[in-house]
Predict the 3D structure of the following.
Amino acid sequence: MAHTESHAPSTTIHQRCLAVLTVRNEGAFLLDWLAHHRAVGFNSFLVFSNNCQDGTDAMLDRLQKLGWVTHLRNDGPYHERGIQFTALKTAQKHPLVHEADWILPLDIDEYVNVKLGSHRLDALFERVPSATAITLTWRLFGNNGAQRFEDLPITQRFTHCAPEAINWPWRAVMFKTLYRNDGTYGALGVHRPRRPDTEKLAHANWVDSSGRPLGENFKTKRIFSDYGRPNYEFVQLNHYPLGDMESYVLKSDRGRAVHADDKLGMDYWVERNFNTVEDTSILALADAAASFKAKMMADDVISRLHNAAVAWRKSRFEHLMEQDDYRSLYGRLLMSGSSRQVTVQEAKFMINFALRGSDS
Protein backbone atom coordinates (compact mmCIF):
# COMPACT_ATOMS: atom_id res chain seq x y z
CA MET A 1 0.00 0.00 0.00
CA ALA A 2 1.28 3.46 -0.87
CA HIS A 3 2.09 5.64 2.10
CA THR A 4 3.65 8.68 0.49
CA GLU A 5 2.13 11.76 -1.11
CA SER A 6 4.52 11.99 -4.02
CA HIS A 7 2.07 13.59 -6.44
CA ALA A 8 0.82 16.24 -4.05
CA PRO A 9 2.44 19.69 -3.94
CA SER A 10 5.43 19.75 -1.61
CA THR A 11 5.77 21.89 1.51
CA THR A 12 8.79 23.82 2.76
CA ILE A 13 8.75 22.17 6.18
CA HIS A 14 11.67 19.76 6.44
CA GLN A 15 10.20 17.77 9.32
CA ARG A 16 7.68 15.02 8.64
CA CYS A 17 4.42 16.23 10.15
CA LEU A 18 1.64 13.65 10.24
CA ALA A 19 -2.06 14.33 10.80
CA VAL A 20 -4.26 11.34 11.65
CA LEU A 21 -7.96 11.69 10.86
CA THR A 22 -11.07 9.52 11.36
CA VAL A 23 -14.14 10.28 9.23
CA ARG A 24 -17.61 9.03 8.41
CA ASN A 25 -19.89 10.74 5.86
CA GLU A 26 -17.72 13.87 5.74
CA GLY A 27 -17.06 14.05 1.99
CA ALA A 28 -18.53 17.55 1.74
CA PHE A 29 -15.94 18.88 4.22
CA LEU A 30 -12.93 16.70 3.43
CA LEU A 31 -11.25 18.79 0.73
CA ASP A 32 -11.42 22.03 2.73
CA TRP A 33 -9.95 20.32 5.79
CA LEU A 34 -7.18 18.68 3.79
CA ALA A 35 -6.38 21.86 1.85
CA HIS A 36 -6.07 23.95 5.01
CA HIS A 37 -3.80 21.47 6.75
CA ARG A 38 -1.61 21.21 3.65
CA ALA A 39 -1.34 24.98 3.79
CA VAL A 40 -0.49 25.01 7.50
CA GLY A 41 2.35 22.57 6.86
CA PHE A 42 1.28 18.97 7.39
CA ASN A 43 2.94 16.88 4.70
CA SER A 44 1.53 13.46 5.57
CA PHE A 45 -2.04 12.30 6.20
CA LEU A 46 -3.29 8.97 7.50
CA VAL A 47 -7.08 8.90 7.19
CA PHE A 48 -9.47 6.23 8.47
CA SER A 49 -13.04 5.94 7.20
CA ASN A 50 -15.88 3.84 8.53
CA ASN A 51 -19.33 2.88 7.23
CA CYS A 52 -19.67 5.74 4.74
CA GLN A 53 -22.84 6.29 2.71
CA ASP A 54 -21.85 9.58 1.09
CA GLY A 55 -18.79 8.36 -0.82
CA THR A 56 -16.16 9.69 1.59
CA ASP A 57 -14.33 6.36 1.35
CA ALA A 58 -14.32 6.46 -2.45
CA MET A 59 -13.01 10.02 -2.35
CA LEU A 60 -10.20 8.96 -0.02
CA ASP A 61 -9.33 6.06 -2.32
CA ARG A 62 -9.00 8.51 -5.19
CA LEU A 63 -7.00 10.98 -3.11
CA GLN A 64 -4.65 8.17 -2.16
CA LYS A 65 -4.20 7.24 -5.81
CA LEU A 66 -3.36 10.88 -6.55
CA GLY A 67 -0.85 10.96 -3.70
CA TRP A 68 -2.60 13.26 -1.25
CA VAL A 69 -3.39 10.85 1.61
CA THR A 70 -3.06 7.32 2.85
CA HIS A 71 -6.49 5.78 3.41
CA LEU A 72 -7.43 2.82 5.58
CA ARG A 73 -10.95 1.49 6.10
CA ASN A 74 -12.00 1.10 9.71
CA ASP A 75 -15.27 -0.82 9.39
CA GLY A 76 -14.98 -2.85 12.60
CA PRO A 77 -15.12 -4.71 14.82
CA TYR A 78 -14.37 -1.91 17.24
CA HIS A 79 -12.64 -1.76 20.58
CA GLU A 80 -14.96 -1.09 23.52
CA ARG A 81 -13.49 2.43 23.70
CA GLY A 82 -14.94 3.28 20.31
CA ILE A 83 -14.31 3.80 16.61
CA GLN A 84 -11.64 6.46 16.95
CA PHE A 85 -9.66 4.54 19.52
CA THR A 86 -9.71 1.50 17.22
CA ALA A 87 -8.36 3.64 14.36
CA LEU A 88 -5.57 5.11 16.46
CA LYS A 89 -4.60 1.67 17.73
CA THR A 90 -4.33 0.51 14.10
CA ALA A 91 -2.41 3.65 13.15
CA GLN A 92 0.25 2.87 15.71
CA LYS A 93 1.50 0.00 13.53
CA HIS A 94 1.52 1.99 10.29
CA PRO A 95 4.81 3.02 8.60
CA LEU A 96 3.70 6.66 8.40
CA VAL A 97 3.56 6.83 12.19
CA HIS A 98 7.02 5.28 12.54
CA GLU A 99 8.46 7.72 9.98
CA ALA A 100 6.86 10.89 11.40
CA ASP A 101 8.78 13.54 13.33
CA TRP A 102 5.59 15.13 14.69
CA ILE A 103 2.11 13.59 15.08
CA LEU A 104 -1.31 15.14 15.64
CA PRO A 105 -4.61 13.19 15.73
CA LEU A 106 -7.43 15.45 14.59
CA ASP A 107 -11.15 15.49 13.79
CA ILE A 108 -12.71 16.90 10.63
CA ASP A 109 -14.13 19.88 12.58
CA GLU A 110 -10.73 20.87 14.04
CA TYR A 111 -8.40 23.27 12.23
CA VAL A 112 -4.87 24.13 13.35
CA ASN A 113 -4.45 27.91 13.47
CA VAL A 114 -0.86 29.10 13.92
CA LYS A 115 -0.72 32.79 14.83
CA LEU A 116 3.00 33.34 14.33
CA GLY A 117 4.95 34.57 11.31
CA SER A 118 4.07 32.50 8.26
CA HIS A 119 1.08 30.93 10.09
CA ARG A 120 2.65 27.55 9.41
CA LEU A 121 3.99 24.82 11.64
CA ASP A 122 7.60 25.83 11.04
CA ALA A 123 6.92 29.21 12.68
CA LEU A 124 5.53 27.39 15.72
CA PHE A 125 8.46 24.97 15.94
CA GLU A 126 10.91 27.87 15.71
CA ARG A 127 9.24 29.57 18.68
CA VAL A 128 9.31 26.46 20.93
CA PRO A 129 12.33 24.52 19.58
CA SER A 130 12.80 22.31 22.64
CA ALA A 131 9.16 21.24 22.98
CA THR A 132 8.33 17.55 23.21
CA ALA A 133 4.60 18.28 23.08
CA ILE A 134 2.48 21.34 22.34
CA THR A 135 -1.08 21.46 23.62
CA LEU A 136 -3.41 22.94 21.00
CA THR A 137 -6.32 24.30 23.01
CA TRP A 138 -9.76 24.32 21.45
CA ARG A 139 -11.32 27.62 20.60
CA LEU A 140 -15.01 26.93 20.14
CA PHE A 141 -16.63 28.52 17.10
CA GLY A 142 -20.39 28.78 17.41
CA ASN A 143 -23.30 28.45 15.02
CA ASN A 144 -24.06 32.20 14.90
CA GLY A 145 -27.60 31.54 13.66
CA ALA A 146 -26.69 29.67 10.44
CA GLN A 147 -29.54 27.34 9.50
CA ARG A 148 -28.87 25.60 6.18
CA PHE A 149 -25.79 23.86 4.83
CA GLU A 150 -23.71 25.71 2.23
CA ASP A 151 -20.83 24.24 0.26
CA LEU A 152 -18.28 26.77 1.52
CA PRO A 153 -15.22 26.47 3.81
CA ILE A 154 -16.37 26.46 7.42
CA THR A 155 -13.43 28.70 8.31
CA GLN A 156 -15.09 31.42 6.23
CA ARG A 157 -18.70 30.72 7.26
CA PHE A 158 -18.13 30.63 11.02
CA THR A 159 -15.96 33.39 12.44
CA HIS A 160 -17.56 34.03 15.86
CA CYS A 161 -16.27 32.11 18.83
CA ALA A 162 -15.69 31.89 22.56
CA PRO A 163 -13.72 34.67 24.25
CA GLU A 164 -9.99 34.26 24.83
CA ALA A 165 -10.62 33.60 28.52
CA ILE A 166 -13.60 31.36 29.20
CA ASN A 167 -14.67 30.36 32.71
CA TRP A 168 -16.90 27.35 32.04
CA PRO A 169 -17.18 24.55 31.02
CA TRP A 170 -13.82 22.77 31.15
CA ARG A 171 -14.73 21.05 27.87
CA ALA A 172 -14.37 24.44 26.19
CA VAL A 173 -10.60 24.34 26.78
CA MET A 174 -9.84 20.73 25.96
CA PHE A 175 -6.78 20.27 23.79
CA LYS A 176 -5.28 18.00 21.18
CA THR A 177 -1.56 17.33 21.41
CA LEU A 178 0.99 17.94 18.68
CA TYR A 179 3.89 15.84 19.88
CA ARG A 180 7.41 14.96 18.83
CA ASN A 181 7.65 11.32 17.81
CA ASP A 182 10.93 10.72 19.64
CA GLY A 183 9.97 7.63 21.64
CA THR A 184 8.76 9.48 24.71
CA TYR A 185 5.30 8.06 23.98
CA GLY A 186 4.52 4.71 22.44
CA ALA A 187 0.91 5.09 21.38
CA LEU A 188 -1.45 7.65 19.87
CA GLY A 189 -4.39 8.98 21.86
CA VAL A 190 -7.45 11.05 21.02
CA HIS A 191 -6.39 14.07 23.08
CA ARG A 192 -2.88 13.19 24.21
CA PRO A 193 -0.21 10.57 23.43
CA ARG A 194 -0.27 7.42 25.54
CA ARG A 195 2.11 4.74 26.83
CA PRO A 196 4.94 6.97 28.09
CA ASP A 197 8.52 5.76 28.44
CA THR A 198 9.24 6.47 32.10
CA GLU A 199 12.92 7.19 31.52
CA LYS A 200 12.33 9.64 28.67
CA LEU A 201 9.34 11.20 30.43
CA ALA A 202 11.59 12.89 32.97
CA HIS A 203 13.14 14.95 30.18
CA ALA A 204 9.91 15.70 28.29
CA ASN A 205 9.09 19.36 27.76
CA TRP A 206 5.39 20.15 27.46
CA VAL A 207 4.34 23.69 26.54
CA ASP A 208 0.90 25.19 26.01
CA SER A 209 -0.55 27.16 23.10
CA SER A 210 1.14 30.30 24.41
CA GLY A 211 4.54 28.64 24.87
CA ARG A 212 4.27 28.44 28.66
CA PRO A 213 5.86 25.39 30.34
CA LEU A 214 3.37 22.89 31.74
CA GLY A 215 3.47 20.85 34.91
CA GLU A 216 4.11 17.15 35.38
CA ASN A 217 0.42 16.18 35.32
CA PHE A 218 0.20 17.28 31.69
CA LYS A 219 2.80 14.67 30.74
CA THR A 220 0.56 11.79 31.80
CA LYS A 221 -3.01 12.87 32.60
CA ARG A 222 -4.40 16.27 31.66
CA ILE A 223 -6.63 16.74 28.60
CA PHE A 224 -7.73 20.33 29.16
CA SER A 225 -5.94 23.63 29.63
CA ASP A 226 -6.42 25.97 32.58
CA TYR A 227 -9.57 27.94 31.93
CA GLY A 228 -10.31 31.50 32.95
CA ARG A 229 -7.20 32.81 31.15
CA PRO A 230 -6.07 33.36 27.53
CA ASN A 231 -4.53 30.27 25.92
CA TYR A 232 -4.05 31.21 22.28
CA GLU A 233 -1.00 33.44 21.83
CA PHE A 234 1.05 31.18 19.51
CA VAL A 235 -1.51 28.71 18.19
CA GLN A 236 -5.08 27.60 18.70
CA LEU A 237 -7.19 24.73 17.51
CA ASN A 238 -10.22 26.24 15.82
CA HIS A 239 -13.03 23.85 16.72
CA TYR A 240 -16.26 23.95 14.69
CA PRO A 241 -18.32 21.32 16.52
CA LEU A 242 -21.74 22.65 15.50
CA GLY A 243 -21.72 24.18 12.04
CA ASP A 244 -25.09 25.11 10.60
CA MET A 245 -28.24 23.62 12.11
CA GLU A 246 -28.78 21.34 9.14
CA SER A 247 -25.32 19.85 9.58
CA TYR A 248 -25.86 19.42 13.31
CA VAL A 249 -28.93 17.28 12.64
CA LEU A 250 -26.77 15.05 10.44
CA LYS A 251 -24.07 14.99 13.10
CA SER A 252 -26.62 13.79 15.65
CA ASP A 253 -27.69 11.07 13.24
CA ARG A 254 -24.08 9.98 12.64
CA GLY A 255 -23.14 9.66 16.31
CA ARG A 256 -19.76 10.39 17.87
CA ALA A 257 -16.44 8.94 16.79
CA VAL A 258 -15.43 8.25 20.39
CA HIS A 259 -18.81 6.98 21.60
CA ALA A 260 -20.71 5.92 18.51
CA ASP A 261 -24.01 5.28 20.32
CA ASP A 262 -24.18 8.80 21.80
CA LYS A 263 -26.76 10.95 20.02
CA LEU A 264 -25.98 14.64 20.16
CA GLY A 265 -28.68 16.88 21.57
CA MET A 266 -29.15 20.30 23.11
CA ASP A 267 -26.69 19.71 25.96
CA TYR A 268 -23.79 19.34 23.52
CA TRP A 269 -25.04 22.37 21.57
CA VAL A 270 -25.38 24.71 24.57
CA GLU A 271 -21.90 23.92 25.88
CA ARG A 272 -20.35 24.89 22.53
CA ASN A 273 -22.46 27.60 20.89
CA PHE A 274 -20.29 30.58 21.78
CA ASN A 275 -20.41 33.54 19.39
CA THR A 276 -18.99 36.15 21.76
CA VAL A 277 -16.16 37.59 19.66
CA GLU A 278 -15.04 37.51 16.03
CA ASP A 279 -11.76 35.83 15.13
CA THR A 280 -10.68 35.65 11.48
CA SER A 281 -7.00 34.90 12.10
CA ILE A 282 -7.20 31.53 10.37
CA LEU A 283 -8.07 33.23 7.09
CA ALA A 284 -4.41 34.25 6.74
CA LEU A 285 -4.03 30.89 4.95
CA ALA A 286 -7.29 31.08 2.98
CA ASP A 287 -5.61 31.75 -0.38
CA ALA A 288 -3.06 28.98 0.10
CA ALA A 289 -5.80 26.55 1.13
CA ALA A 290 -7.94 27.54 -1.87
CA SER A 291 -5.01 26.78 -4.16
CA PHE A 292 -4.61 23.27 -2.73
CA LYS A 293 -8.36 22.66 -2.97
CA ALA A 294 -8.40 23.79 -6.60
CA LYS A 295 -5.64 21.28 -7.41
CA MET A 296 -7.70 18.48 -5.90
CA MET A 297 -10.94 19.59 -7.55
CA ALA A 298 -9.17 19.71 -10.93
CA ASP A 299 -9.44 15.93 -10.92
CA ASP A 300 -12.78 15.01 -12.51
CA VAL A 301 -13.31 12.05 -10.19
CA ILE A 302 -12.69 14.11 -7.06
CA SER A 303 -14.97 16.88 -8.30
CA ARG A 304 -17.77 14.41 -9.02
CA LEU A 305 -17.39 12.67 -5.65
CA HIS A 306 -17.37 15.98 -3.77
CA ASN A 307 -20.56 17.12 -5.49
CA ALA A 308 -22.17 13.76 -4.80
CA ALA A 309 -21.32 14.08 -1.10
CA VAL A 310 -22.92 17.52 -1.02
CA ALA A 311 -26.07 16.13 -2.67
CA TRP A 312 -26.13 13.23 -0.20
CA ARG A 313 -26.12 15.64 2.75
CA LYS A 314 -29.11 17.52 1.42
CA SER A 315 -31.03 14.31 0.72
CA ARG A 316 -30.19 12.81 4.11
CA PHE A 317 -31.31 15.97 5.92
CA GLU A 318 -34.68 15.91 4.17
CA HIS A 319 -35.12 12.26 5.12
CA LEU A 320 -34.26 12.94 8.77
CA MET A 321 -36.62 15.90 8.96
CA GLU A 322 -39.52 13.55 8.22
CA GLN A 323 -38.84 11.95 11.62
CA ASP A 324 -40.20 13.63 14.73
CA ASP A 325 -37.02 13.32 16.83
CA TYR A 326 -34.82 15.11 14.31
CA ARG A 327 -37.48 17.63 13.36
CA SER A 328 -37.90 18.46 17.06
CA LEU A 329 -34.15 18.84 17.43
CA TYR A 330 -34.05 21.25 14.50
CA GLY A 331 -36.91 23.23 16.03
CA ARG A 332 -35.09 23.51 19.35
CA LEU A 333 -31.99 24.75 17.55
CA LEU A 334 -34.09 27.43 15.87
CA MET A 335 -35.52 28.52 19.22
CA SER A 336 -32.20 28.64 21.06
CA GLY A 337 -29.76 31.54 21.04
CA SER A 338 -26.04 31.86 21.60
CA SER A 339 -24.61 30.48 24.82
CA ARG A 340 -23.67 33.11 27.36
CA GLN A 341 -20.36 33.27 29.16
CA VAL A 342 -20.57 32.07 32.76
CA THR A 343 -19.18 34.69 35.13
CA VAL A 344 -16.13 34.07 37.29
CA GLN A 345 -18.32 34.01 40.41
CA GLU A 346 -20.73 31.49 38.86
CA ALA A 347 -17.88 29.30 37.70
CA LYS A 348 -16.24 29.33 41.14
CA PHE A 349 -19.57 28.31 42.67
CA MET A 350 -19.71 25.19 40.48
CA ILE A 351 -15.99 24.41 40.73
CA ASN A 352 -16.30 24.41 44.53
CA PHE A 353 -18.87 21.62 44.31
CA ALA A 354 -16.72 19.74 41.79
CA LEU A 355 -13.77 19.83 44.20
CA ARG A 356 -15.96 18.69 47.07
CA GLY A 357 -17.27 15.84 44.96
CA SER A 358 -13.77 14.70 44.01
CA ASP A 359 -12.79 14.53 47.67
CA SER A 360 -15.75 12.37 48.69
Summary: The chain has one domain: 108-359.
